[in-house]
Design brief:
It contains 6 helices and 5 strands, in the order ααβαβαββααβ. By secondary structure, the chain is α+β, with helices and mostly antiparallel strands. The protein is elongated, with a radius of gyration of 20 Å. Bound molecules: iron/sulfur cluster. Iron/sulfur cluster binds next to loops.
Length: 187
């Protein structure tokens, strides 16, 4: 398995202590452990946190290649929209623990429908935008410990809020492989 995830000198590395390995190697070993039983689905929760950009790309390419070779799907959990755009076929956007939108990747980026998704994309750093001109999402997340929380957890930050936004939201669970949005006044 270490060979498969391209650890150099795998027979020797198999006997190494974790502190003798680089961050990238530790990540590759985590992937080797995760795919050892040939799963149909790999859940990769922030798989490149703490790695430099080059190693991040190498790890993500490796996951994509292994997925294609083994017929394995990957559920990537990330805060990095750029990474999601590059590696995912379909994106599900969450805000404050709720799914707010799901769509095929190109569709989500070209035509975001939930106000939060649109703000999130606008706030993502791009080479063409100076960091000081980068859009910010106003307001804060709601306090999830509060006794009562509005059905739409984005409502205090939303510029498109309407009176009916206080009602229960359209249900999207069960429909996530299609384009869906949990919002009463989508874009
Ligand atoms: S449901 Fe209403 S408040 Fe919530 S995101 Fe949609 S428009 Fe905004």
């Amino acid at each position: 398995m270490l060979k498969k995830v391209r650890i150099p000198d795998p027979e020797r590395r198999a006997k190494a202590y974790p502190f003798e390995l680089s961050g990238g190697m530790c990540q590759r070993i985590m992937i080797a452990i995760a795919i050892a039983c040939s799963p149909k689905l790999l859940i990769a929760d922030e798989p490149t946190t703490g790695l430099d950009v080059t190693t991040q790309a190498a790890i993500m390419d490796l996951i994509a290649e292994l997925g294609a070779d083994q017929g394995m799907s990957t559920l990537l959990i990330t805060h990095d929209l750029g990474m999601a755009a590059e590696y995912c076929d379909h994106i599900v956007v969450m805000h404050a623990g709720h799914i707010v939108e799901a769509a095929p990747t190109a569709e989500l980026f070209h035509h975001p429908r939930h106000p939060y998704t649109a703000k999130l994309i606008a706030a993502t750093p791009k080479p063409s935008v100076n960091l000081k001109d980068l859009a910010a999402i106003p307001g804060n997340l709601p306090d999830l410990r509060a006794a009562s929380i509005a059905p739409c957890r984005y409502n205090t930050r939303c510029e498109r809020k309407q009176a009916r936004c206080d009602q229960a939201l359209p249900q999207v669970l069960g429909e996530l492989k299609h384009s869906v949005v949990a919002c009463w006044n989508p874009l």
